[in-house]
User: Fold this.
Amino acid sequence: MSVSSGPSPLALPGRERRALYRARLRAWAPLLVLIGLCLLIDIGNPRFLTIANLVRVATAAAIPLVLALGTTFVILLGSIDLSLEGVLAVGSVLTSLLAANDANSLSFGLAVVPVAVLAGALIGALNGALHVGFRIPSFMVTLGIWFAGVGLATVLLGGGTVRVLEPLVRDVALTRVLDLPVLVWIALAVLLLAWVIQEYTPLGRYMYVIGGGEDIAALSGIPINRTKVAVFTLAGAFYGLGGVMAAAQLGVGNAMIGDGRLFPSVTAVVVGGTSLIGGEGGVLNSLVGVMIVTVLANGLVLLGVSPYLQQAIQGLMIIAAVAVSIDRVRSAIVK
Amino acid sequence: MARYNPAMTALRRRSFMIGSGGLALAATLGRNTGLAADKPVLVNSIRSLTNPYHATWNKGGAAFAKSVGCEYVTLVTEGNSEKGIADIRAILARTNGNMVLNVDPNDSPDARPIVEACVKAGAHVVTQWNKPADLHPWDFNPYYVAHISFDGVRYGEETANHLIQAIGGKGGIVALGGILSNTPAIERKAGLEKALAAHPDVKLLDFQVAEWLNTKAHDIVAAWITRFGSDIKGVWAANDDMGTGALEALRAEGLAGKVPVTGIDGIKLAVDAVKAGEFAATVSWDPFWQGAMGLSIPYHARIGAFDPTKEPKLHREFYGTGILVTKENADAFAKEHIESDPNLDFNDLWGRISGPIRQS
Amino acid sequence: MLQTIQLSKSFGGLPALRDVDIEIRPHEVVGLVGENGAGKSTLMKILAGVQQPTSGSLRRDGVPFVVHNPREAAALGIGMVFQEQSLLPNISVAENLFLGREAEFTRFGLMNWRRLHAAARRELQRVGLDIDPGRRTAELSFAARQMVELAKALSLEERVRGELVILLDEPTSVLERAEIERLFARVQDLRNRASFVFVSHRLDEVLALSDRVYVLKDGSVVATLPAAEANVTQLHRLMVGRALNAEYYMESDQAPYAPEVVLQARGLGVVGAYRDVNFELHRGEVLAIAGVIGSGREELVRSIFGFLPHTEGELRVNGLAVRLATPADAVAQGIGYVPRERRTEGLVTLLSVAQNITLANLDSVLHGVRIDYGQERTLAEDWVKRLHIRTAGVDMPCGSLSGGNQQKVVLAKWLTARSRILILDHPTRGLDVGAKEEVYRLVRALCRDGLSVVMTADTLEETIGLAHTILVMRDGNVTAVFDAVPGAKPVQLDLIEHMV
Assistant:
C-alpha cells in the first residue's frame, strides 16, 4: 500500500486534477504564446514564415539569446545581474582593439575570442566576489560594475569607435553555414552548453537549490558562496562572448554597443517563465522568451505597425505573456 | 547632434546617480590643472564621452582652453537631467561664477534652470541644440550670450536628396528615425518628407524608429528585407549610428554598396563608408567646432571683446553650418577633420552662421 | 554510543539547555518529552549539527566530536527528520533525497540521473512510498513529503557503516494512522542498525515506541525512566510539575449555551466539496466538526471564514444572510480564525507580539491615522497577563515564542478584534500538555463570556471533550449530529461509525 501523493491537505480534493492540468498548461504557456504569435504574424504577412525571414529572425535573436542565458543563471539563483551592458562593451572593445582594426596595428585574429570571454568571466567573477565577500546585494554590485564597465570601455577607446577589419571576426556574422550565419551556430552551441550545465552538472542543480531555499541549501552543505561566484563568472563569460558577437555583427567596437540590451534580456527571461524570485524556470524557458521578444519585433515591422504604437504593443505583450504563465492560484501573495 | 538618447530606457533616464566610470573619467579627462586664478574656468557640459560625437566636442573644448591658457572642466550628464543641472550648480559655486559654460542640455526644459543659475552667478553661458522655444538669450542680457542649433529640416532634406540622386531619382526607400519625441528626430523627418514631396517618383515604403541605435537599426532593416526584398533601393537614416547598423544588415545579405545609405553626424565610420561607396552622404556638425566655439563665444563676451547686448538677434540665436560629406569631398573632409584636429580660427565667432533659428 | 556531557546552550543570555547529560545506547529507541520551551528541539538540533552548544561536549563511542552542519553530522551517522520540513519544493524528490550528495552521482562533471533515480526509488520503497522520484516535491502532499524526509534520514543506512542515530522530531503530528504505523514498523526494522531519538507530544506514542524516556523541563533532564515502567500521567506530572488534571477537558466548566443563534447554515454547499450542511451555532456554544480528510469539514470551515465562498444554500450571521467572499468580509462580521499553521497563517513571525495582537483591528489603537504605540503596548501587556503568554516582552518578535504562546497571541489578536465567533482549526496541534490545558481553559472562559466557537480538533477525544455539539461529516455530507452534554457525552465509537 502506498501513500497517495496528492495535493496539500488544505487543497480541495475535487479540484486536484484540475489544478494539476492548470499547472501543466501554465508551464507550456510561453511556448503556446510564441506559436500563436508566429501564426498571427504569418496571417498578416505570409513572408514571415519563409526560410529567408526565419534566418533573419534567428540572426536577430542570436546575441540576445547568449545574453539571456547568462542572465537566466543569475536569476535562477534569485539574484540579478545588471552589468550586462558594461561587460558586453568591454568585450566588444577588446575585440575591436586586438583584432585587425582601423585604430592600431594589432591583429590577433580569432584569438580575441577567448580574450574577450576571459575578460567577461573576470568581471563576472568580480561581481560574484563583491556580492558574497562584502554581502552587497547583487543589484547594487552589478549596477556599479555596469557603469564601471562602460567607463572602462570609454577609457580604452577615448570615447571613440573602432572599426573591426579582421575578416575572420566579421565572418562570424557574414559567413553562412547551412544558410545560417556562424553567429547563430555559436548561439546554438552556447544554448547546448548552458542546457548541459543546467541539467547535468552539480553547479546547475545548485542554482535551483539556492534559488529554492538558500537556508536549507546551507544546512545541506551546498557550497553556496562558491556556486554564486561561479554563476556570476559564467554569466560574465557569456556577456563577453556576446561582446565579440556584437563586434562581429555591427563591425565596430565602442562603449555604447551594449546600450539598451539589458532590458530585453531580462524581459525575455521573465516572459519565458523564469521567476525573478529564483528556483524556477531555466534555459529552455529563456529560449522561448528570447524568441517571443525577437519574433514580436520582427513581426511589428513586417506588419507595418506604426512606430508610435510599437512600444505600447510590446509592453502589452509582455504583460499578457506573464499573466498567462504565472501561477495565480498558488501565489496568494503578489508583490 | 545631441539626441543620443538610446539610453532613455526606463532604467537609465532620470534614475541613477553614479560616481564611478563616466563622471570620474570625464572629470579627469578634460581637466587642465588650474592656471591664473582670475582667468575664467571654461566648462563643457555634454551627455557622455562614450560616443565619438561628444568625445570630439570635448577635444575641441580642450584645444580652445589650451589656446587661451584657462582651466578646462568637462561635465557629463549621462542622460540624467538632474545630475546635469546639479553639476553645473556645483561648479558655479566652486568658481564663484567666474566661468563660462557651453552646454548641450540633456532635454529642452533643462536649459531654463541652467541659464537662470548662470545668470544669477554671473557666469556667461551658451546653449546648443535644446532649449524651450520661449527662452531667448536677449531676455537674459548680458550673461546668456547665444544659442546655437542646426537646422534638422534642412539637413534631413539634403541627405534625402542625395539618397534620391544616388538611386536614380525613382524607386522605393525606407527610413529610420530617431526617438520620436526628440526635436532633431522630428526636424530631420520633416526634411525627409519635404524631399519626398519634391520627388513623386520616389516612394517611402516604411518608416520605423530605431531610437538612434545601431543594433535596433540592424534588426529593423533585416525585417524590411523580408517585407520588401529588392524593392528597397535606398535607406535613409536620421543619424550615422543607425545608418551603420543598417549597412551591416545589408552587408549580411550581400547588399552593402548596392543599396545606398545616408546618415547624419559625420562620424568616422560613416565617412569611411562614404569613401567606400556604401554611404551616399552624411552631415558633420563638426563637434570640434561646437566644443571650441561654444566656449570661445561666451569667453570673448566675458573678457569684453564684444558686448552681447549690442549684437543683432542673428548673433544671439542662430543655426550653424553643417558640412555635407559626399563622395566628392569625403577624402578631403577625412584628412581635415578626422585624421587631424581641424584648424580653427577661434576668433572667428560668427563665421558659421547660416541663418536665424526658426521660431515655431 | 552517543553521549552528551554537560551540554548547555544559551540564546543571548537565555538558557535553553542546562548541563544536559543524555545517553543513547545501541539498538534502542529513546523517547524525549517535555513541554514546549523545555529544550527538546534545541537538544535535537545540536545533535544534528544545526546548532552549536555554548558549552559541554558530544561523544560518539567515547570519542569527542564537533559538527558544524548536518552534513558533518550525517558523516557520523546522525540524521534528523525535521519538524518543519526541510525539503526544497522546486526540485525533484530524488534531488531532495540526495541534497548535498550530488558528487556521488557525478562523473566527469556530469550527473547520472538514472543512477540517482534508481537510488532514490530504493530509498522511497523502504518507507513504502511508491512515487516517481523525478516528481517535483511541491506536488506532493504534506504527509508524503514527511515520508520523503524520513526516507532521507534513513538513507544514511546505506552511506554510513556502523551504528546510526536517527532523530525524529515530532514526525507523527501530520501523519495518518496507517502512515504512523508504517513509520513505527520501519523503526523496528532498523533497530539492529540504528538507535532512535523520538520527540513527540503524543505521550502514548512515545511510550509505545521507546525503550527509555528522558523528561526535559526548563532545559534540564528531570527524569529518565524505562518506558515499560512509566505511564502518561506520570510523564505529564514530571513534565509539568503537577498532577494531570483529572478533568482534562474541564467538562464541569462546560456551561449550557444561550438560546440566541449567532451563526446559521441552511443547505450550505460548495460544489465538489460539501453539500446540504445545516447547523445552528448559539452564543456560548462550542460546535465541533468531526471527519477524516476528504469529508469536507476543512472546506466547510474555510467557507465560514471567507476562504471559500459557498455556492449553494445560505449562511446567516446574527440573522442576516451573508456571503463571505473574502476573509475581510468574515472579520467584518465578527468572525475570527485561528489557523492550524499558526507560524505561516496566524502570525507575522517577524513582527512583535504587540504588533500581531493589534493586527486584525488596528482601529483600536489608531488616533486618526497615527498608531498609538503606547496604547498598543498597554493592550498587548494586558493580554499577556490575562492569557499568561510567556514572552520576554511584548516587543519580542513572535517567531521567538514557543508554539503554545504563539497560539495565545493569535487568540489575543481575535479577541482584540472583538470577534464573537471564533473558528479554531486544530488549536492544540504541536502544543504540550500544559499548553493544551490552558487552551481548553481559555475556550471555556470565552464561552462563558458569550463567544461562540466552531472547532476542528486533532483527536476525537478532544472533539468530544470540548464540544457542546458535534457535526460528523463524511464524503461531503453531514452524517450525524451529536449533543455532547457533560455526563452524557458520546464515545469515540459512536462518531467513527459515521465518519468512515
Remarks:
- The domain at 152-284 of chain B is CATH 3.40.50.2300 (Rossmann fold).
